[in-house]
Description:
This protein is an alpha/beta fold. The protein has helices spanning 24-27, 39-44, 66-78, 93-105, 119-125, 163-180, 182-190, 193-198, 200-220, 235-244, 249-268, 273-282, 293-300, 329-338; strands at 2-7, 12-17, 33-38, 53-57, 86-91, 111-116, 130-135, 138-145, 150-152, 306-307, 310-318, 321-328. α10 crosses α13 and α11 runs antiparallel to α12 (273-282).
Amino acid sequence: xxxxxxxxxxxxxxxxxxxxxxxxxxxxxxxxxxxxxxxxxxxxxxxxxxxxxxxxxxxxxxxxxxxxxxxxxxxxxxxxxxxxxxxxxxxxxxxxxxxxxxxxxxxxxxxxxxxxxxxxxxxxxxxxxxxxxxxxxxxxxxxxxxxxxxxxxxxxxxxxxxxxxxxxxxxxxxxxxxxxxxxxxxxxxxxxxxxxxxxxxxxxxxxxxxxxxxxxxxxxxxxxxxxxxxxxxxxxxxxxxxxxxxxxxxxxxxxxxxxxxxxxxxxxxxxxxxxxxxxxxxxxxxxxxxxxxxxxxxxxxxxxxxxxxxxxxxxxxxxxxxxxxxxxxxxxxxxxxxx
Length: 339
Ligand SMILES: NC(=O)c1ccc[n+]([C@@H]2O[C@H](COP(=O)([O-])OP(=O)(O)OC[C@H]3O[C@@H](n4cnc5c(N)ncnc54)[C@H](O)[C@@H]3O)[C@@H](O)[C@H]2O)c1
Ligand SMILES: [Zn+2]
């Protein structure tokens, strides 16, 4: 196990890599701590929650809403949680987002930490301090940027993670490789999901490497002015597809990355689309898809990354080197129509 402290502009986060949940007692006192998890995680790991005050929520994105926040707050009041209470989110991104958000508003803000249990949670959602909830069809519409005090990474939870969620999380891993880490991309080409699922050491290293990529990007640009935008590779078109079709987030951004590669060929001299597509397919993610281009473009136009008539689009110069380029909506529409 290694513990490292990462400084962000607003606060610091202690990350306990390859740690065990038993270590949690050393970080936070069970008497003044409330764990928040979902039914899937709780059922599969019930014995690990023994001796801790725990709130168990229903699983799924549809519960990442204000009504759940209200229910958690009522429960905290009932439990007599006060300013000295620490909240720990143990689950996927839905649970860590809710936990961080509740902890930021309960009594104007209390201490919180995460123990992410999904690949997506480990490499992405638990890191960077964005905590939010959905409002109607608008994802992450309400929220706050506030860093957790600690993150504990315990791989034992992955034993119960369904195959589909492994694939979903690997889309973000491949994204990190594309924008920042050519060597990791080669490693992903050589290995497979089976190698990572079967070897504790290799998944542990991969997750740590990915967590560090995201941390570094966020450290440079916590409030998303420039560098942090790179993390949106595949997400502009991906989000539009996710809204329009029944896709998992990882599947949607995988298709988004595929087309972003083609746009990169046109506008940034990128020449490695086939390699990216091959890796996505190797990890069982969808690449080319037929979709209603006009409808998807209409949704895409409303993206948060739009600035008047221009869109900041993340492209690749080469594998391992992502860039942000401003594309006019007109040009983007033309390119999408040509797909
Ligand atoms: N805050 C951020 O910066 C950030 C970044 C990326 C994504 N997110 C958010 O994260 C969410 C997606 O995260 P996710 O994919 O982890 O979703 P999730 O929390 O819904 O988890 C996916 C599914 O896996 C189950 N699960 C999780 N860990 C498990 C385990 N160890 N064993 C068995 N089942 C397990 C969950 O119960 C759920 O059914 C979205 O709401 C997204 O907006 C936030
Ligand atoms: Zn994502």
